[in-house]
Write a structure and sequence with these properties.
heterodimer; A: 281 residues; alpha+beta; Rossmann fold; 2 domains; five-stranded mixed beta barrel; globular; B: 91 residues; Arc Repressor Mutant, subunit A; three-stranded antiparallel sheet; two-stranded antiparallel sheet; 3 helices; 5 strands; P-loop_NTPase (chain A)
Chain lengths: 281, 91
């Protein structure tokens, strides 16, 4: 299906009549996105950043940025949120998380916000394992199994992570804002799909040393439902179909809990543990 | 709340289920919430997918499949049905 994306002139976000039918709320309680119905389809509002109007048939997407919002923010919202929402609504399988290519074997990292998914993908890339995505995992089912698709050659991380991944001084980056690190020789990006070998759910950081434990299938399914992109939570047929696709994923791919202390000095050991774990699967 | 043997249990039509790894996961499509059921709970859910059942029916079904004393089965099923009712998964 072809989709037409257009960028309209920037405009203040005016209040929408009626309550949103769904919201994304961050762990801090902030509203990350609101979902509204409109005659032509859906409005996905990222407060303070942009409105995305999506037609019912998903063929047209119009973005109206809020005043002063940088193009990179629009690109990020489109790639990491709008595209996976549309993909899942159309029957695809996209998850919130990052992914890495370990020598032709794919690993995906999921977990709630601020668990370190992007930093871990960056640490893997820094160790020579190219990343495929930093915030949105795109999966296709093939004869070989589930394929991880390359999404976007950018890592967006907070200042301390950016300094660690680039080797720069901490003062180089704003600690409060995310920095966008382009892929390159030091942080390679995988340009081809790889077969997904395992999905790691990032734990809270309670472990004293890097540790991987197996998750039961039902636990994995309830966990992965939290990291799915759903455009219309009231569309029961699509929600049900998405649930069944995720069930198939859970039965086809091992789900593991990965926990480690959230210290940069530990990341090389985490990467080594992942490489060993994947080799054994 | 006490559940009588003749009470009819009906599953919520807005709940879908999938068995994964020997357990059954329920998704309430209206509430967007998930529930996990063990093997006994999964067997009860499967029975309810065929239509409403009395509590006595469900106890008989479980007794014919799982090895446990009748009073334990009845007590466990009453607790499970109560829990499912409280979460709006069955009526």
């Amino acid at each position: 299906m072809s989709r037409e994306f257009s960028l309209a002139a920037e405009c203040e976000q005016v209040s929408v009549s009626g309550a949103p039918y769904d919201r994304w709320v961050t762990p801090d309680g902030d509203i990350a996105a609101e979902f509204y119905r409109e005659d032509s389809g859906f409005l996905v509002r990222f407060p303070g950043n942009a409105d995305f109007h999506i037609s019912k048939k998903l063929t047209q997407i119009v973005c109206i940025p809020a005043p002063g919002i940088a193009q990179t923010v629009i690109d990020t919202l489109f790639a990491n949120s709008v595209t996976p929402l549309i993909g899942n609504h159309a029957g695809g399988l996209n998850l919130h998380g990052s992914a890495v290519d370990f020598g032709g074997v794919g690993a995906a990292f999921v977990g709630t916000s601020r668990r370190g998914k992007t930093t871990l993908a960056g640490a893997c890339a820094r160790a020579g394992h190219p990343f495929l995505s930093e915030d949105s995992i795109a999966l296709d089912l093939s004869d070989q199994g589930f394929l991880l698709q390359p999404v976007r050659p950018v890592l967006r991380v907070f200042g301390d992570s950016a300094a660690y991944l680039t080797g720069a001084d901490c003062d180089t980056f704003d600690g409060q804002q995310k920095a966008a690190l382009d892929a390159g020789e030091a942080l390679p990006f995988a340009t081809r799909p790889v077969v997904l070998r395992a999905i790691y759910v990032l734990g809270p950081g309670d472990a004293e040393m890097p540790k991987i434990t197996r998750l039961g299938a039902s636990q994995a399914l309830t966990e992965i439902m939290r990291h799915a992109f759903v455009l219309d939570v009231e569309d029961k047929a699509r929600l049900s179909a998405h649930f069944f696709r995720l069930s198939n994923l859970v039965q086809a791919v091992p789900f593991l809990m990965l926990d480690y202390p959230r210290r940069f000095s530990v990341l090389p050991a985490v990467v080594n543990l992942l490489a060993e774990d994947l080799l054994g699967r | 709340m006490t559940i009588s043997e003749n009470e009819i249990v009906t599953r919520n039509e807005n709940v879908v289920a999938r068995e994964v790894g020997g357990e059954t996961v329920l998704l309430d499509l209206e509430a967007g919430t998930y529930f996990g059921l063990n093997a006994v709970g999964g067997a009860i859910w499967t029975a309810l997918e065929d239509g409403p059942r009395t509590l006595a029916d469900l106890c008989s079904l479980v007794a014919s499949t799982f090895d446990a004393p009748d009073d334990v089965i009845e007590s466990d099923i009453k607790a499970l049905i109560s829990d499912l009712q409280a979460n709006g998964l069955v009526a």
